Amino acid sequence: QVQLVESGGGLVQPGGSLRLSCAASGNIFGINTGGWYRQAPGKERELVASMSTGGRTNYADSVKGRFTISRQYGWNTLWLQMNSLKSEDTAVYYCQFRSYSTVYWGQGTQVTVSS
Fold first, then answer.
1. 3-state DSSP call for residue 58?
2. What DSSP assignment string belongs to 40-57?
3. Of 107, 10, 92, 96, which is closest to residue 52 (Cα–Cα)?
4. Which of 44, 39, 19 is nearest to 89 (CA)?
5. Hey, how many other C-beta atoms are within 10 angstroms of the C-beta on 103?
6. Per-residue pLDDT, 19
7. What is the bridge-based pairing of β-strands 91-98 and 103-105?
8. Share of the chain above pLDDT 70, in %
9. CB within 8 A of 69, min separation 6: which ones?
């Protein structure tokens, strides 16, 4: 089992920045992909960014050039640096880790971009 706890969300003005963290515990040795998803009210959960063990990254078109995913070696911590935030980035952000057989989710952290 793997436990994921997100932190770093909050209220920020448009154009501002936030850094989300996802702390992992448990049996993380089998993890091969980590990612961030978000879900806005009335919308489906969507992929924001992901990273593989080999370092390959993938970003949603809407966040390219503004968000950066990174991780601590060994998958202990996953981060999402969010710059130039827009109102449409408002959502609950979830951390997700994957092994070959299992998907793990955190509880989510709220990000609100508003003036």
1. strand
2. -TTS--EEEEEEETT--E
3. 96
4. 39
5. 11
6. 98
7. antiparallel
8. 100
9. 34, 35, 36, 49, 50, 51, 57, 59, 78, 79, 80, 81
pLDDT digits (tens, 9 = 90+) for 53-104: 988 999 999 999 999 999 987 899 999 999 999 999 999 999 999 998 899 9
Which residue would you say has higher pLDDT here, 7 or 100? 7
Q: Return the closest-CA partner of residue 45 out of 92, 103, 87.
A: 92
Name the β-bridge partners of 21.
7, 79
C-beta contacts of 72-75 below 8 A and 24+ residues apart: 74/28, 75/24, 75/28, 75/31, 75/34
Task: Tell me the residue type at 43.
Answer: K
